[in-house]
Design brief:
By secondary structure, the chain is an alpha/beta fold. The protein has two domains: about 120 residues, Tetrapyrrole methylase, N-terminal domain (Cobalt-precorrin-4 Transmethylase, domain 1, 3-Layer(aba) Sandwich); about 100 residues, 2-Layer Sandwich (Methyltransferase, Cobalt-precorrin-4 Transmethylase, Domain 2). The chain is built from seven helices and ten strands. The strands form two sheets. Strands 3-2-4-1-5 form a five-stranded parallel β-sheet. The chain has a five-stranded mixed β-sheet with strand order 6-7-10-8-9, with helices on one face. The chain is elongated, with a radius of gyration of 19 Å. The N and C termini lie far apart (about 55 Å). This is Precorrin-2/cobalt-factor-2 C20-methyltransferase.
């Protein structure tokens, strides 16, 4: 009998935010696979899972290089797929753990596509997790959208929409915009928000639910060179003020 693949979201940082379903699967799975890179000692997803459930003795990292080289990435995804398929064929259940939710900007998506494209018919179950999007808004008691309002979730890498002229178009068409991983384009985003006179409608959240969490309602207090990779900005055009919690 073949094993089953689980894609498990462990949330944005606080182990108390793992769902009951996630904890149950982490206890029962034969293999726990976190994504890792050659430059990373231990993935944050694994650190979170360890605090919630005893998973010692069954951890097998899958290496995904931090690169923009499409061929290297495809090779890594294929290798990871083969690694997981080997365990599934032997009858072991495999849980791939990921920050936030498995189907929102997650490495799990590529592993899922690898398994779906192979000839074997493996059973797969995706277990949702708390996202940074909803987590950050919750810690601020800040509604994301109401009624007919529209929400945009935007990646903010160097070449992403948030770091280009597209941001103005997005802001024009959506009431709330959540910019994810803003470290590479923070300075440009801050200038654009100032130009659109939206500085007082934006809040910066870094490492939500983790050690070193920082929430700042005045973007001028945030220096570009101190912005962590796991940092977001929520822009809410319909809120006249944002709740200050631990503003720095």
């Amino acid at each position: 009998m073949k094993g089953k693949l689980y894609g498990v979201g462990v949330g944005p940082g606080d182990p108390d935010q793992l769902t009951l379903a996630a904890c149950k699967i982490l206890r029962s799975a034969g293999i726990i696979c976190p994504a890792t890179s050659s430059s990373e000692k231990e993935s944050l997803a694994l650190q979170i899972a360890r605090q919630a459930v005893d998973i010692s003795g069954k951890i097998e990292p899958l290496e995904f290089p931090m690169t923009d080289d499409e061929e290297k990435l495809k090779s890594a995804w294929h290798k990871a797929g083969l690694q997981v398929r080997r365990h599934l064929k032997s009858g072991l259940d495999v849980a791939f753990i990921t920050l936030g939710d498995p189907l929102l900007y997650s490495t799990y998506i590529y592993l899922l596509e690898e398994l779906q494209s192979c000839e074997e018919n493996f059973e797969v179950e995706t277990v949702p997790g708390v996202t940074a999007v909803t987590g950050c808004s919750s810690c601020l008691n800040l509604p994301l959208v109401r009624g007919d309002e529209k929400l945009a979730v935007v990646p903010s890498g160097r070449d992403g929409p948030a770091g280009s002229d597209e941001l103005e178009k997005i802001v024009k068409n959506f009431e709330t915009i959540v910019l994810l991983k803003v470290s590479q384009s923070f300075a440009d985003i801050k200038k654009k928000l100032a130009k659109m006179e939206l500085q007082d409608r934006a809040v910066f959240v870094s490492r939500y639910g983790q050690k070193g969490e920082r929430i700042v309602t005045d973007l001028e207090k945030v220096k570009a060179d101190e912005v962590d990779y796991l940092s977001s900005i929520i822009i809410n055009k319909n809120n006249s003020h944002l709740l200050e919690k631990g503003a720095g």
